[in-house]
Amino acid sequence: MKVTYSWIIYSCIIYGTGIQCDRKLEKRHTGTTCLGDTEDHFKCSNGQYIEWPVVCDGHKHCSDGSDETNELCAIYEFGTNMTMDCGRVNQNIISKNLSFALAPWSVKVQESNEKSEIKYICMGTIIAPNIVISDGSMFWNRVIKSNRLMLTNGVRFRISKYSDNSNTNLIDVSAVYLPIGFNHTRAINADLKIVNIIVFVLANKFSFDNGFIPICIDWFGKYDLRKKAQMTFIVANEELYPSAIQGSFPYTDNSLCTLLQKNLTNTGVIIDKICIKLENVTDLRIIEGLPGSGLGILHSASNFLNGILISLVRSDKLINYMVFTDVQYYVPWFRGIFNKHVTVNSCILPTVEGVIYSYEGSDEVLPHGTLIDRHLNVIENCDVGYHKAYPISFRVCMGKGKWYSSSYKLCYKMCPPLISDSLDFKCSHNCKYANCSDLSIPDTIATPSCKQSYYAPYGQEDTLLELVCQSNGIWNNRLYRCIPYCGKINNNINNGMISDGETASEWNGTMERWSLSI
Description:
InterPro entries: LDL_receptor-like_sf, LDrepeatLR_classA_rpt, Peptidase_S1_PA, Peptidase_S1_PA_chymotrypsin. The structure is a single chain. This protein is 5% helix and 36% strand. The longest helix is centred in the middle third of the chain and has 11 residues, at 331-341. An 8-stranded antiparallel sheet has the order 7-8-18-17-20-21-22-19. Strands 9-10-11-16-15-14 form a 6-stranded antiparallel barrel.
């Protein structure tokens, strides 16, 4: 089978400990090769196969463009069409520069054995309903094969809420990924920790109704987050589980890490690290024991993941340093895992005017932008003020962002009621009576006429006006206002109001004396 494949050549810096590349795109090449139908590749609509990380990267790699469709890539949108409501926190201000904030993307990574004994390993950060990122250095003593962790019999990783100490709401991990190029043997033999990041794929998804919210990822490098001063990182606090401390910090790059390099022997190469200075923080217990926690940067009221906590470097003075893995170098790798385990198996509920969604048998409204699993059925109804064209409507997620919908257009905006002090209306729809005082559905026809004691304005007396309700909820013509008869002389009346051959005004009258005898 012929396929199109692409690769990206990065600018790289070679160290004695390995190779580290930046994310700048230098070259893209396209060719054809033969490839079997494997789960490690994305299948284009025309039968071609491409690598997972290049799907929805902003460039068409499938010759038919099926890897960059709006439906498939809607999950990466942020802003007006934001999905999954990522990175939102509830803040509690504690000082001018710092605040505590709930961090609903923080979870605990734990390990259980054949005896169901549970051991805490590290923290993790949610980036998708079934994907968690953490510190890879905590897992080097596990057996690794083809950049996947292989667990011994009876041992499994499990994820839970940071605040859940009952271990009753655990989610099993189905797959664990390390970056391509990780050399486990070299790392162990040299006692050198090369890779400080790991990705967990869960067997089941988090329910965002239960307080879980993913942190945002700047998938396309659009927001220049490195120059943002407001950052959020997780701390341990007995009263505010799960909590984060939020504060302003100066522009951060890896130059500070370079100065600290002699103290960072356990963190591998320096180029993919972020080091943050903590001044006058005397109680470091709030940070210790939390490797894998996410460093967020605030942008447009949402937190974007910028780093994963590796370690804390102590100083003799009241200056200490937190060391993070800079996630910007791993975004293409994240995208590949995200595409494989989320994008192709889900759909985003589209924003359609007037349409509201719910699961069958539920009254709960699903917001536009909700992530829906493949093969799930969603019921469609119309909001107040909209006409439902079909009695029953539904849509089914087919995967890759594609929907099967039972109706083309379900909800039509209704026209406002016709109410006037000077006009009467007769309405009909498909030749049947319709109440003009209610909202009118499209194609309703309304015929106005002046009420008694009113007359049509000049130029409208002999013109029959007809209004039609359009599909946009607007009547196709403007109404006129009838004029009351008061003050107008009527020459056609014959009610005895003629005096000496002259026409009397209708508002004139006579007064007579009546005598009433009993």
